[in-house]
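In the previous chapter we treated chains in isolation. Here, by contrast, the input contains two separate entities that must be folded as one system, with a combined length of 656 residues.
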Amino acid sequence: MPNRRPHALIRLCLLAWALGLCALLATPAQAVPAFARQTGENCVACHTAFPELTPFGREFKLNGYTWGERAATPLALMMQASVTQLAQSQDAGGRTLMPHDGDLQLDRLSVFAAGKINDHVGGYTQWAYNNNRTKGQDGGTVGHAGIHDFDLRAVQRLRLAGKDLVLGLNLNNNPSLQDVWNSTPVWRGIPVTGSNLPRPQPLGGFMLDGALGQKVVGLGAYAWWDRQWYGELSTYGSAVNTWRVLSTGVSLDSMNRLRGYNNPYWRLAWNREWGAHSLMLGHYGMVADKYPEPGTAHGGTDRYTDLGLDAQYQHLSDPSIFSLQGSLGHERQNLRASFARGAASHPDNHLQALRLKATYLYERTYGASLAYVDVRGSRDAGLYGRVRDSATGTLVSDRPDTQSYVAELNYNLNPQMRLILQYTGYLKWNGASANIDGRGRRPSDNNTLFMGWWFLF
Amino acid sequence: MALSLMWAQASAQTVPGPEAPALARQVCVTCHGPGGRTDSGQFPSLAGQSEAYLLAQLKAYRDHGRANLNAQRFMWGVTSWLSETDLQSLATYYAAQPPAPPRGGGRSPEQQAAYARGQALFLGGEPARGVLACMACHGAQAQGLGSIPRLAGQNARYLALQLVVFKGHDRADGAPMAAQAGPLTPEQVQDLAWYLQAL
């Protein structure tokens, strides 16, 4: 069955409904998310362009979300709707690559429970219904409900060598979810939010770039000294059995499984704030032993070693806010188990990625950002397939190299609402600058135009 | 040994020491800088400010008497969960800190001219337009007195912003200043701000 498109009248009604909701909610912020209700602060005290954190927001998170008064109903809601257009939605064979191309979609509904439990314990969790998780049999999409984020902290504030020290324990379900700078995998926001329609995706993802999110449990300890030095050591394992609630919604049959609960993640950062300026230089890393086949937890494992250098600069003033984030990541893949099973052509591979992002926000209302991502890695036909020209049979690529950029304009009607116009472009796709599927498709044919509405209340 | 001594000190001081309220070190510092001295043009330096003025302003934030946009964004929330003791403790602490040093060295000829115009306005006012000499209330060195705030060394951007706030009548206690700031031209606001931050 071909891609289904709602009747034009229905689309018009949906658009009118979305704009009407915008108008209804675009009132001075009284109904604000749970943390804002707890602290009494406006959202802009903690965030620049949500979810990027200000120095105040970082302190709030590192102090376990415990500032303020405990709210009677620590709940918040988030809703996202969008329209996505793929540059070429069909391949050379006439196959539709993305359902709902150009259709208005109610993408995701989320519920947050967030806030302090007492003066030393706080956290948040997000549960989401994703309307477009996978392609359906009928050419449409299939929805999915489950946990998204879980971040629970216990903190103690001390003095060490005459300086303030915050010691914390953290339990989470995604490595780097606990981080407070926006240059680490979970929060680097390239893009912050984009289309969730199932569509062609480049290969070459790092272990830390989502492969473990909502599938693991991590317990860690951190220290934040003199508002200058941050150190953290956590250890991760699969969120099964006792910890299954942290992977709710993820099928055990498709879950990436780690060996044991001793897969370490670490983080070091130096931070400095002066005047309107804020600078962070940091390092993060993880070593994870993962079973090669999703859903299985026996036999040999592959070892992934992710190392990253990251930096963030913010200039926070009024009316302008400017921020820069950059990260350089390297992943060493010891694929001993996959190689033995024939799923990888080489026992040792690597990936590296450069990510840069610049954001400008005027009067906390008008935002623009530009990001660039360059992923490169070793060739491996077993992992990435071997694309050959359909006419000549010559090899096109067996590499994961992808170069892309994301340009975004956004309009924040109030701190709880954002309108987004975003363009994602590809300069190289899975090792090829042209003919990426062997049948003439170009990298730019996968470019996407995304227009989104984001409500948080 | 050194580590164990440091750890012992850390363990012993779970309650912040008397040299600074924990709130100042852990919360206020993110915007107002260590010791209440910041180069930010968005947030004021608090060090050396008059204690009575600080206390009055903290209460004005808590009671929503100061209602300009940044007051609502940043200060209404944080003061809503502070006790009277907290407010007094913060006012006492910041008043006792050494003020921020003068700013704006190495001035261009244009900036020197602006400084001179700002100085003349501060010391003599502009009687023809009903603008009183600022020094009459704020002191000859803009050092403040009682509930009248210190202006010396404050960031020029912040000072200019506050004069605009007074013009908009967004401060409950600002009627006298609204009358003074009202006739000021944008150029005079900049001249005054430039002069005061260099004091």
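Chain B touches chain A through 33 residues (CB under 8 Å). Chain B has two domains: 18-95, 109-197. Compare these points with the single-chain example from earlier in the chapter.
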